[in-house]
Amino acid sequence: MKTMDLHSKLKYYKSQQRKKKPEKSTADNPALSALAEHFCGIIQNPSAPFLQIERRHPLAYAQELAAGGNPQIKLSFLSRNQLERPFPLSSVLFFDLETTGLAGGAGTYPFLFGFGWVENNSLVVRQFFLPDYGREYGLYHHLQEEFFPSFEILASYNGKSYDFPLLKNRFILNRLQPVFDRWPHLDLLHVVRRIWKDSFYACDLATIESNVLNHHRQNDIPGYYIPQAYFNFIRTGVIHDVIRIIEHNYRDIVSLAELLLTLDHIEQQPHTLTDPRARLNLARLAFEQQDETLLSRLSAGFRLKSPEYVTSRFWLSLLHKKNKKWTEAEAIWLELRERAEQRYVVLEELAKYQEHIRKDYNEALRITEQALYHLDILNELNGYGTNNLSDIKEEFEYRQQRLKRKLS
Q: For residues 188 and 267, what is the distance between their CA atoms, to the nearest angstrom?
């Protein structure tokens, strides 16, 4: 056989490609058509079809925001300044994926793409469903060229760890540079954990829906079953479970939007949060960000002498100390010094204040010996119990010896 050069080989392969029968379009797939009819959707891109579904959901709080003009979202405090400035609600793209696996990785394939954005005080939810494998390029090209350019910020729930890397990798594998890779990405799970991590046994979206948004889903498909349900659809063409998956994804997008609006409300009126554990976490955020005014307001809302009140008041005293407001700091320390949960750290702060600021060594020594007296009583009752208290005792003993030397 005559050896062909490269040009002849390419010409030969092209001629063979033309002889191949064209692939059968799944636009005529009765299962996909049935899904389109059920959701009043549109089958796009007939050569490599995908289903597009669009619905609207009213957002009451968005209407309140819009009363003053273009709704703006403020999350600088709760996001720890990840989003320093207010941003238009209309610039946010909520997204959530349903995939063929829960672990991620190169073999995981997203088959349902849920997106949502706010328009005229309603949430527009647009979903794209891929009916089988190997036809995703048409959808990604559509998203890249016609859909994504309208937005500037991504919002997801645990999307930074799972959905975002997966979507980005699929774009790259299809030789598309994802435009959304340059956007700020607000993962609401991180914000939720900062507030409610001590309030609920978990911070998954279902828990937050039930306890924060007061939504309770009926006949929702379990997340762990979604991959198997999609495989069953490909094999059998039965659409019942796919309908449930699409509804599940739709509710996820709606909850994302409502959660963002709820967080915006908490950002602007944090004192309205009634759960004391969540409120204490807000106080911790205020302390970390050195917001003395907000921390004072939050502390004042706790039940007097409750553990949350005592802890938040002590944090406030440390901010007063940092700002050299010694009178205000001392007043809080004197208020809290008999509270068992903060006694030793408060007595330590009082002793340091008397020694280093007031230069009253006698008073500093008296406070130090008071702390040692309480520690000795605690030891007689049940032992120090932890190495922490032993370390505290050593520190007070060291301070006691130093003060005695200063007074001698």
A: 13
> Does residue 3 lie within any of the structural domains?
no
Per the CB < 8 A criterion, the answer to whether 367 and 354 are in contact is yes
95 strand-pairing partners: 115
> Tokens standing for 320?
């007063």
Burial class of residue 108 (count of CB atoms within 10 Å of its CB; 0-12, 13-18, 19+): middle
So what's the pLDDT on residue 1?
46
Query: CB burial class (10 A; 0-12, 13-18, 19+) of residue 355?
Result: buried
Residues 252 and 297 in one domain: no
Residue 98: strand pairing partners: 112
Inside any domain, residue 99 = yes
Mean pLDDT of the chain: 90
- pLDDT digit string (tens) for 95-115? 999 999 876 666 789 999 999
Nearest to 259 by CA among 198, 196, 301, 168: 196
* CATH number of the domain to which 81 belongs: 3.30.420.10
> Could you read off the pLDDT of 205-241 as tens digits, one per residue?
999 999 999 999 999 999 999 999 999 999 999 999 9
The domain tally of the chain equals 2
How many Å apart are CA 221 and CA 251, to the nearest integer? Answer: 11
For 384, phi then psi, to 5°, come to -70, -25
Residue where a domain terminates, one of 246, 268, 290: 268
* Angle between helix 188-196 and helix 276-288 axes, rounded to 10 deg: 110
Residue 338's pLDDT is 84
131, 137 in Cβ contact below 8 A? no
Cα–Cα distance measured from residue 269 to residue 7, given in angstroms and rounded to the nearest whole number:
71
**Residues facing residue 56 across a β-bridge:** 124
Query: Are 97 and 189 part of one and the same domain?
Result: yes
- Considering the domain architecture, whether residues 195 and 324 belong to the same structural domain is answered as no
Q: Which domain holds residue 306?
A: 272-407
Q: State residue 26's pLDDT score.
A: 47
Looking only at the bridges linking them, the beta strands covering 92-99 and 153-156 are: parallel
Residues 225 and 245: their CA atoms lie apart, in Å, by 10
